[in-house]
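Form 7-S
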Amino acid sequence: MELTDASTIQIDSFMALTLGIVVLFAGIATTSKLDFLQNFNIPEPVTGGIIACLLGLLIYLVTGYEIEFDLYVRDILLIYFFTTIGINARFSQLLAGGRPLLLLLGLTIAYLALQDIVGVVSAMLMGQPSGIGVLVGSASLAGGHGTAIAWAPTIADQQGVGNALEIGIAAATIGLVAASLIGGPIAGFLIKRNGIENLSDDNLLAGVEYDKKSETKITHLNIMSSILLIHLAMILGYILNEAIAAVGIKLPLFVSCMMVAILMTNSIPALFKVKNWPSGSNALAVISDMSLGLFIAMSLMGMQLWGVVDLAGPLFILLLAQVAAAVLFILFVVFPVMGRNYFAAVLSAGFAGFCLGATPTAIANMSAVAKAHGPSPTAFIIVTLVGAFFVDIANSFLIQFFITL
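Output:
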């Protein structure tokens, strides 16, 4: 930890990881004591992360010091997590996701257009440039911080929005918080209102169900063998990612690692008669839970809310309209179209995650629901594919279209 200038406290990667563990435990403890957090399926790392970022905001308001975290380890944890998803996935689940994948992709493209329409119309009604509506639309919400940063200069030049970068980052930050908070409650509401039961006997793709015992025991050997397998998949995934990039296709590294892990888990055990493959094991579940929990906790604790405070007012009104549009679209379009069943309810939690926040947020939302109500492996697979890959491709075309209007 060091002071990089007169007003910034820089936290190195080791200390950031340590604080992330503390934040995760704080979220677990808080959630266990507050029934409404459990009833609304709020992910435990979200609880801890929000507490931490509010504490960071308080420190800034009282002392004037900004806290910045080196989040290198967090990004490694994201790859860890999605690799465990691949190790747990079976081809039968992927095949089952064929038609739902196409349906979800169509709904996502439609919603991205709706998100920009809501943003542009709301901005114009408030007397703001239409470019702000796009920025506080799919560019920062479905697109996240990276897309907002990438498109902010273009919007600033074409629309004359001087603080486009600050608006985009602030909108992406608030969207991430909103996505973390509404996904679980939406799924819980749909499950309760429709009297839905989960009849699946599959294992969770991520984590361990609450109050469910497993026949597999955790030992140092299956922990280490799971980590070794994860690392092998990550190495091969990196090589695959480089090969794909060489032909002009850009994929997130965690998608490549997940694809390799899926291929490994559906070929090696059958070809080489491996009996102790870690799919569905408690050891892999622990690694999965730890990776996702720490990723979410560190992401939220690293948010600099003081940058949002200065952009309050119109920005919050625009984002409130976007959250309302997302909730209505999920309740009256996504859930009915995807089947009005448990799968559709879990998918609804994930849709809220990636349409307002990011794919890891979607997975965290679905994990909270699955731990409480049971697994839905196909939902995890198709949300990951749509949220991590197809969204960025479709979004780039839509943003360009709405900017040129």
